[in-house]
Structures are given as C-alpha cells and as structure tokens.
From TrEMBL:
SUPFAM superfamilies: HRDC-like (SSF47819), P-loop containing nucleoside triphosphate hydrolases (SSF52540). This is DNA helicase RecQ. Belongs to the helicase family. RecQ subfamily. GO terms for molecular function: 3'-5' DNA helicase activity; ATP binding; DNA binding; four-way junction helicase activity; hydrolase activity; metal ion binding. The lineage of its organism: Bacteria, Pseudomonadati, Pseudomonadota, Gammaproteobacteria, Pseudomonadales. Its cofactor is Zn(2+); Mg(2+). It is an enzyme of class 5 (isomerase). The keyword Isomerase applies. Its EC number is 5.6.2.4. Gene3D superfamilies: HRDC domain, P-loop containing nucleotide triphosphate hydrolases, Winged helix-like DNA-binding domain superfamily/Winged helix DNA-binding domain. One of its GO terms (cellular component) is cytoplasm.
C-alpha cells in the first residue's frame, strides 16, 4: 500500500491500519479503476472512497440516498478537518450558489449529493467543467427493484459511465444477496469494475432466537440486562409499535415510537433524539432503517418475524456498527407465520414473485428452528461457508437439546388430516390431549381415532411441535381455510414411516441461561464507570457545542481505548485509535484533563448524573428504578430529584407517582404551621412506614418553588 494512503489514514482519521480489503480497494480507485464493494455494515466502507478522494486531484462526488446520511458524513468529515459539503433540498438558493462557488474555487474535496440532484442536466454540465476525482455510489442496492430500498433515481446513474469515461466509479453496499449484486453491476454499468467481496459475518453480534411465549415479559427480561444501552425494537404493525413504546416507557425504559403513520416532523424528531441522546430505545417498523448510521446501537430486538433472511440480516446488522459487542434477539411464534402469510397473500405482485417471497419466508423459519450454529446457517444462506460453529450464538452457547419426535409428529399430522385440514393449533392440541369441550363436541372430534392419544406431551410441548412442523415445512398454514393447518407434500415420508424426525426442545424461560454471553452493557467495569461517565459527559458537551451527535466527536471505541490505555500526554493521546491530527488539536487537552485529574473530573460526573437523572425521571422511571440504573443509593436519587424540582427542571408529577389524597395529606402537613415550611424531618414521623422520607423532600421542594413563583 502506498505510504501516502497510510499517512492519510493516520493523520486524518487517526487509524493505524487498514481493515480487511480497504487497502486493496483504495489502491484500485486511487489508480483510476472502478470498484464494486460488498462489505457488511460496520466494515468501513466510507474510508474506501474518502481516502482515494484525498489522494486524487479534483472533486469527489458521493451519491447518497438520504439527507440524514449525508449530513452525518459531512459533519464527521468536518470534525476531521476535511472540506465536505452536502447539496440537498434543505439549502436555500443563495446557499446553493455559495456552495457552487466554493466548488469552482477548488475549496471542497467531497461533495455529497442525492441521485435525483446529480442527474439533473444542469448539475451534470456543471460537473463536466470541473476536474472530478471519483464518483462514489453509496447504498448502491437502492438500484435494485426487488429490495425495499429501491430508488428509481438510482437507475439513471448508469449514464455516469458514458459522461465521465475517465473518472473512476466505486459502488458500495452492505446487501448480501447475489441477485442484488448482479443487478448493481449491470444497472450501474460497472462491467469493468473489480469486485471486492468481504465476508458478511458480523462477529461482534450475538444471535439469539427464542420461542414467543409472553413476548412483553421476555422483552423486558432481555432489556433488563441492557439498561442504558441504545437499541431498536422492531414490530410488524404501527399499532404494535405505539403500544410497545408506551409499555416500555411505563416500565422505565426510555422508548420512542417510529413508523410511517407518524407526522414526518415527529418522525425526524425521534430519529434525531435517537442519534443524539444516549440510551434511547427506538420501537419501530421497518420504516426505520436505512440512514441509521448510529454506531453504538447495542441491540436489535425483533418482536415479530422479518419476512426474509435478507431483511433479518439487514435489520440485525444495524447493531454494533462500531465493532463492540452487540445483540440480535428475536421472539418468534406461529402467529407470526400466519400474519406474514396473510400479508403476502394480500400483497401486490404476480404469482412468481409471491412464490419467491414464500421461499424466503421459509428460509427465515428454518433459521428459527435451526439446531446447528445460527451464524453458520445464516451465512450459508448467503453462500458463505463458516468452517466451524461460531461459539457466539444461542445454539452454540446453550447447546440444543433435541428429541425424537417421530411418533408425536405422526400423531399431529394425522390429527390435521383426520379433522379435514381446517383447524388451528388450539383445536388440534385439544384433540390430541383428549379435551372434550364444546367446540370438540360440536365438531364430533371426540370420536376421532387420534382423540386423546397425545397425553404423553403437555400443551406447551404440542404447540412447540406444531410450530416446528410449520417451520420445517412439514405442515402449512391454509390462508383460504382461515389459518387452519394442512399437510404439505414433504410430510409424506414421515407419515409413511420412512424417516425419523428430530426436533429441538424449547428451553423454559426460567431455565434459560442469562440473556447473552456478550454482555454488551458490561463494556465498562464498575471501577471504570466514573471516568467513563466523565468522558461521556465531556463528549456530550462538545457535541452540543458543535451541534453534532456525540459519536461524531469520538466513537465509543475511542473513548474506551482512552479509558484503558490512560494516555498522559498529547503524544500518548495521538496513538489512540480514532484520534487524528485535527481532533487531537481540538479535543486532546480536554480529554487528557478528564483522564489525568480524577478529582477535578468529579463535578463533571455529578453534572452528568443530574442530566441523566432528569431524563430518566421524565421518561417515567421510578426513583428505585433510577437508583438501580445509575448505581447509586435511592436516598441520593431523592435528593437529586428534589434539587431538580427546585431548579424547575422537573415537575413533582414527573419525579414521583403519588396518589392524590396522599399528596394532599403531605402538603397539608407542610403548610399547617404558619410562616416558613418546616423541614421534612419535622413531619417525617407522621408518614413513617407510608412513604420514603425522600418523597417528603420532593414535595417540599415543589411547594417551595411554587411559593417563590
Ligand atoms: P460502513 O459504512 O461499512 O457501515 P463505516 O465506514 O461507517 O462502516 O465504518 C464503521 C466504523 O469503523 C467507523 O467508526 C469507522 O471510523 C471505523 N473504521 C473504518 N475503518 C477503520 C480502520 N481501518 N481502523 C479503525 N477503524 C475504522
Ligand atoms: Zn454459533
């Protein structure tokens, strides 16, 4: 690799070495060749065109589909001291003229632009008069009509090949499927492009899929181990998104809804908060997706089944872009299959298309019921072979218990067959268990030969078995028959006794091991926490000052390295990965101060705690929950709450959830005497055993601030 490229990597970006195929890609493009780059999320695609842009003469033009993505990139480059601008509809005519002028003067190195803007004849003519270093086409899968990110304007980018025959073009995507790859190459006229295909494995993501039992409870248990982490919870419907977001907030997890049914201002407000604040949970439909470049999303949870492995891979891939441990968690049940099949049946598209979608859904189900390593199975679907089980998924860690289900499966299949292939799982289980209820009697099913033959298994085991029969394609859901189960062709060998069937034994929730071995939320040890919080508080303050998300100042991985390597001097600091010349200059001292002056940093920690406490209280957490989250005594929480009330940062209602009468009683006690309010301790005996003394502090603080007003 050229030493010029390595120097740029270190000086501008602050990194010591290229990752994976970055060096080869950069060399190819810097020398003027075309490239098609297929690299997973978090792989480091941006550098693949940013470094050549700095190596080559002229303006680098980057096509990006979303304003949010462009702005994120521009502010990141800005922080690195690289001259970049985004041309988009949010600029006024005057601002656009100014940008054009700066470009003509050669002051700009990278221009980010939306595809529809780029292909305007005026724009193309403008660019043809300039020296162009390269074209980078980001999110190149948007050119594919099959993906859900299809953008018709991308189809017109093919003409760049003819209009700028001597300018190298690099197309980049994190989409793993082959068909899309071919489509990109063809539609963007990249026949001469060298292809750089990276492994699509995301080694830092821990995969877990659990049978859906009581999904909300299961979700809470999962989240309980990840307090304070940012994450995404995907649901299928808008209604469910709203409900789950409200439910989580009520349970003390700061959560925001996001779906296409919300007004667009609210949507972008929520998105902005998710990017700028730490520890928020976004509950969303798949409308929330592309454009989420937040690197420290620590988990992606699915409460509903995605419709394909492509979708699952993409959605879970939004976790852990920064390379630190992250979790992909999903609860899956038979009801999901029914819903998705219904949606598929009602969708537009011809039969061939629907058949393809049907196969994709089946592949998704197969992953859910997989008994081997999940990662091996997932990657195999994208034609990538992982030599050994990964050791970093639920199946690898917990092991999968299987059992010989041949006989019960045959009983189940014959129950389906005997009742005319019209009934759902509930009824089938009643038949097998021999429950003579009204519905059974009405249908006369108590006379079936299979009635009551299945008492060896309990209800849960039967449900699990039916779910797995559908998951493996041995039985199918009949949409015309109102969701009843029917046999599918592939079950014949089993019915005829020619094959046996091994199924996985569902772990009972209470016996299931702790949520994950990755323990993303335990990145920082208890003894490091104070300094970590101080570093984060400084980062937050700088981010606010510069009006950028915190991760643009420094990603978590860089803060973590500062914490662990404890730089003492600016030259130590320069060695930390992610600290380039410009950032060293701007922020080096400030972060060194926090690291080297433990005691002086303490006020920052307290200020930070206060800030966090107010947000948590506003999000509806109880004092006990806040104490737990901030790892401090409940009494201190009450003190800080009272203080925040005095400073009018919180209302009493936000701080505490008190019954009306009790509140009245406490207020009366304070106001009974004349003159000044008595101290809380003076009335505490009256409420002994009924409320925490801290509650009195808060009520008193509220009265006090009311009187002062
Ligand atoms: P992608 O676009 O492929 O999802 P990014 O370009 O956003 O990935 O890079 C992901 C993260 O990895 C960013 O924080 C980036 O700065 C960092 N990164 C990229 N290349 C390197 C490298 N060679 N060394 C260290 N960090 C890197
Ligand atoms: Zn595994």
């Amino acid at each position: 690799m050229s030493s010029a490229a390595s120097r740029i990597l270190k000086d501008v970006f602050g990194y010591d070495a290229f990752r994976g195929q970055q060096a080869a890609i950069i060399q190819r493009v810097a020398e003027g060749g075309d490239a098609l780059v297929l690299m997973p999320t978090g792989g480091g695609k941006s550098l693949c065109y940013q470094v050549p842009a700095l190596l080559r003469e002229g303006l680098a033009v980057v096509v990006s589909p979303l304003i949010a993505l462009m702005e994120d990139q521009v502010s990141t480059l800005d922080e690195l001291g690289v001259a970049a601008v985004a041309l988009n509809s949010s600029l006024s005519a005057d601002e656009q003229r100014e940008v054009a002028e700066r470009i003509r003067q050669g002051e700009i190195k990278l221009l980010y632009v939306a595809p529809e803007r780029l292909v305007q004849p005026r724009m193309l003519a403008f660019l043809q008069r300039l020296q162009i270093a390269l074209f980078a086409i980001d999110e190149a899968h948007c050119v594919s009509q099959w993906g859900h990110d299809f953008r018709p304007e991308y189809l017109q980018l093919g003409q760049l090949a003819e209009l700028f025959p001597n300018v190298p073009r690099i197309a980049l995507t994190a989409t793993a499927d082959k068909r899309t790859r071919e489509e990109i190459a063809q539609r963007l006229h990249l026949d001469q492009a060298e292809r750089f295909l990276s492994s699509f494995d995301r080694p830092n993501i821990f995969y877990r899929i659990v049978p859906k039992d009581q999904p909300r409870k299961q979700l809470l248990a999962f989240l309980a181990e990840r307090k304070g982490d940012a994450g995404i919870v995907y649901c299928l419907s808008r209604k469910k998104v709203d409900e789950v977001a409200a439910f989580l907030s009520a349970q003390g997890f700061p959560a925001l809804p996001y779906h296409a049914g919300l007004p667009s201002e609210l949507r972008s407000y929520h998105q902005k908060r998710f990017l700028n604040e730490e520890g928020l949970i976004m509950v969303a439909t798949i409308a929330f997706g592309m454009g989420i470049d937040k690197p420290n999303v620590r988990f992606v949870a699915h409460l509903d089944l995605p419709k394909s492995l492509e979708a699952y891979y993409q959605e879970t891939g939004r976790a852990g872009r920064d390379g630190l441990p992250a979790d992909a968690w999903m609860a899956y049940g038979l009801q999901d299959v029914l819903l998705l099949k219904q949606m598929l049946a009602n969708s537009e598209g011809n039969d061939r298309h629907k058949r393809i979608e049907q196969h994709k859904l089946e592949a998704m189900l197969a992953l859910c019921e997989e008994i081997r390593c999940r990662r091996q199975a997932l990657l195999a679907y994208f034609d990538e072979e992982l030599a050994k089980p990964c050791g970093h998924c639920d199946n690898c860690i917990d092991g999968v218990q299987t059992w010989d289900a041949t006989e019960p499966a045959r009983q189940a299949l014959s129950a389906i067959y005997r009742n005319g292939q019209r009934y759902g799982v509930g009824h089938l289980v009643d038949i097998l268990l021999g429950r003579e209820n009204d519905k059974i009697r009405a249908s006369g099913h108590q006379h079936l030969a299979v009635f009551g033959v299945g008492k060896a298994l309990n209800e849960g085991e039967w449900r699990s078995l039916f779910r797995q029969l559908v998951g493996r394609g041995l039985a199918d859901i009949d949409l015309d028959g109102f969701g009843g189960l029917r046999l599918s062709e592939t079950c014949r060998p089993l019915l005829r006794g020619e094959v046996t069937l091994q199924l996985r034994r569902d772990l009972k929730p209470q016996t299931a091991p702790k949520a994950s071995a990755s323990a993303a939320s335990q990145l920082v040890r208890a003894d490091e926490r104070a300094t970590w919080e101080a570093l984060r508080a400084l980062r937050r303050r700088l981010a606010e000052e510069h009006e950028v998300p915190p991760y643009v100042i420094f990603p978590d991985s860089t803060l973590l390295e500062m914490l662990r390597s404890q730089p003492r001097t600016l030259s130590d600091m320069a060695r930390v990965s992610g600290v380039g010349a410009r950032k060293l200059d701007r922020y080096g001292e400030a972060f060194l101060d926090v690291l080297n002056q433990g005691e002086e940093a303490a006020p920052a920690v307290v200020a930070d705690l206060r800030h966090e406490l107010v947000s948590l209280a506003r999000a509806g957490m109880t004092p006990a929950q806040i104490a737990n989250q901030l790892k401090c005594a409940e009494k201190s929480v009450y003190n800080l709450l009272a203080e925040a009330i005095t400073r009018n940062q919180l209302s009493l209602e936000q701080a505490l959830d008190l019954p009306e009468e009790l509140l009245g009683e406490i207020q009366d006690a304070f106001l009974d005497g004349d003159g000044d309010l008595p101290p809380a301790a003076a009335i505490a005996p009256m409420f002994h055993g009924r409320v925490e003394e801290g509650v009195l502090y808060c009520v008193r603080a509220a009265l006090q601030s009311e009187f002062e007003l």
